[in-house]
Sequence to fold (655 residues):
Amino acid sequence: MLGLDKKDMTTLLVVAALVLLAPFILNPFPANSAMAQFNAGYPDLMQRFVIFGIFAIGFNILFGLTGYLSFGHAAFLGVGSYSAVWMFKLLSMNVIPAILLSVIVAGLFALVIGFISLRRTGIYFSILTLAFAQMSFNLAYSVLTPITNGETGLQLTLEDPRILGQTATESGGIPVTNLFGIEMRGSETLYFGDWSFQFSAGYYLCAIIMLISFYISVRIFRSPFGLMLRAIKSNKTRMNYTGLNTKPYALAAFVISGMYAGLAGGLLASMDPLAGAERMQWTASGEVVLMTILGGAGTLIGPVLGAGFIKYFENIFSKINESVLHSWFSFLPESVENGAVWVAEHFVGGGWSLTLGLLFMLVVTFLPGGLVEGGQRIIKLFRRRKADDGAEQRAAKSHPAE
Amino acid sequence: MGILEVKNVNKRFGGLKALSEVNLSVAENSVHAIIGPNGAGKSTLLNVLVGKLIPDTGSVMFDGQSVLGRTPYEINQMGISRVFQTPEIFGDLTVMENMMIPCFARRDGSFELNALTGVSKQVDIREKAEQMLIDMNMIDKRHMHSASMSRGDKRRLEIGMCLAQEPRLLLLDEPTAGMARADTNNTIDLLKQIKAERDITIAIIEHDMHVVFSLAERITVLAQGTPLVEDVPAKIKGHPKVREAYLGESAAA
Ligand SMILES: Nc1ncnc2c1ncn2[C@@H]1O[C@H](COP(=O)(O)OP(=O)(O)O)[C@@H](O)[C@H]1O
Ligand SMILES: [Mg+2]
Fold:
C-alpha cells in the first residue's frame, strides 16, 4: 500500500498510531496525582516532539544515508522561522503560505551552503557547515537587524500590513495563526475520571505534516536515490569509478534535509509566531545531531525516537527543582538527604544538559546503533527465550519416549 | 589505431620520474598486459588512464577522444571500468545492492534524481543485476553483506560490477595480488570466460607471470617508468632486456 512494502507500512502505521494517539499515550497519570509531573501530553510539548521529529527525520536523510555530518542545520530551522513570521507580518495569518515559504527559503539557503560546503568531505565539511551556521547566527543577531529584529527577535505587531488578512482583530489585538480559520492555539480537553487529555488543533496539524514527512523519507530511503546515498557513505571511490557523480547526489540530500529543517522552523513559528537568532545557534545544530545518533542514525524510526526521547526528558528533567528533590529524598536522614539533593540538583533543572551528556555517552558506548539497536536487542532476547522455551518443551516431550 | 592510445606521457613526483615518454597502443578486443618490477610505474600509468592523475605532458586517447582533464566518473562513462588492487566495493551494502548500482549508472548516467519510486520496482535493473550475479556464480550470496565475503569473492563481485557497466575497456590492477593459488586460478578462468563471451578489451597490470602468460595476447614491459619492449608473450619470455629488468629482480629477491 502507498508504494511501501509490508514492513515499512507497519512502521508507518505504528508511527501514525503513536503520533495520533499521543494526547492519550503521553498523559498516563491522573491530573492531580504526584506522578502528573511525568505527563507530557501538553499541546506545546507535543508540538515540539513532532516538529523536532521532522527536523531529525530530515537530518537523517543527509547524515544517516550519506554520512555527511552537518553541524549547521539549525541555520535552516532559523531561516524557516524568520520566513514564516515575515509571511504572517506581510501576507496573512494563515499558516499554509508561511510554511511553504519557509521550506522554499530554507531550500535555497541549503543549496548555497551545501554547494560550498560539499567541496570538502569529513571533518572539513562539518567545520564549514558549522562556520556558515555561526555566520548566519551572527548576521541574524546583529547585522541583519532590519530583517531579524536582532536580539529581541522577530515578532508580530499591530502595524503589520497583512495584506490578505487583518492588521488587528476587532478587539484591537494581534490576530492568531490559523489554518483557514482553525486557530492553531485552539484546543479541546477531554475529561475521563481523574484523567484529562488535551487535543490541540496546532498539534494535529504538526502531527499530520510530520507523518507526511516521515512517509516521504521512507520513500526516499527505498528509492534508487536512497541507494546512491548509502553507496556514497559506503565507498566514494567506487562511486566515482562506477561513473557516478557523488556531488549532485550529496547536494540533493543536503537541500532536502535543509527543507525539512525549514519546514520544522516554519511550524515552530506557526505554533508561536516569533523567531529569534538563538534558534540558529550551534547548540541547536548539535541537538539534532544528538537526536539522530541517540535514536539510531540511518534507521527510519531512529530520529523520531531520538527527538521524542530528548524533548521528553528535557521537559521532565528541567521541571524538577530543589523542593521536588527534597520531597523525593525526604525518607533519608536529614544530612544524607541534603547531600543527595545537592548531588542530584546538578543533573536537573538547568543542569539537564549534564544528564543528556551522560545519557549520550552511555548510548554511544553501549548501543552504537542508538535506541533502535536497543529495541532490536530486546526483541531478539525475547525471540531467543521463546525459541529456548520451545526447545526445552520439545526436549521434555521427547524424553519419555526414549 | 588501438582503442587506447597513450602518447609521450610523462609524470613526475617531485624529483622522481614515475613515467617518462610512455607510448602504448592497446588494440580493440585484445588482452594486453603491462608488467614490470615494483615501482616501475604501472599503477601510476593506470591512474593516468582513469583520470586519478593528470600527466605533465603527453596525450591519452580512448576511442578517438582525449581523456585528459576529465574526472574519473566522466572517463568511466566513456566506457573504461577499473578493478582495483584491493577490491573497492560497497562494504555496507548487500551483494545484490552492489550489483544494482553499476546497472543504474549504465542506464541513468552519472546523476539521476529518482527519489520516489522504489528500488524494488526497477524490474529491468533487478533482472540485469541478478543475471550478472548468476554469470559471476554468486547468486546464492545476493543477500549477503558484501564486507563479510572472502577476498576472492569480493574481487569476483568487483569484476562483475565493472562488467555490469558493459565497458569497452576493462582495466585490472594486479587482480590476483595477495590471492591463494586456487583463487588466482579461478580469477584467470573468470577472465578467460569473460573474454570469450563478450566484445571487450582488457588491459591488465600483473606481477604474477603465470597469470600474464595465461591471458595476455600482447605484453608491454615497463621499467623505471619507460616501456622497454612490447611483443607477444612467446617473445617476451626469452627477451634479454626483460630478463635483465625483471628476472634480475626475482633472482636478487
Ligand atoms: N602519489 C605519488 N606520490 C609520489 N610518488 C609516487 C606516487 N605514486 C607513485 N609514486 C612513486 O612512483 C613510482 C612508481 O609507482 P607505481 O606506479 O605505484 O609502481 P608499480 O605499480 O609499478 O609498482 C614509485 O617509485 C612510487 O614510489
Ligand atoms: Mg602497483
Observations:
- Residues 370-401 of chain A form the longest helix (32 residues).
- Chain A has 17 helices and six strands.
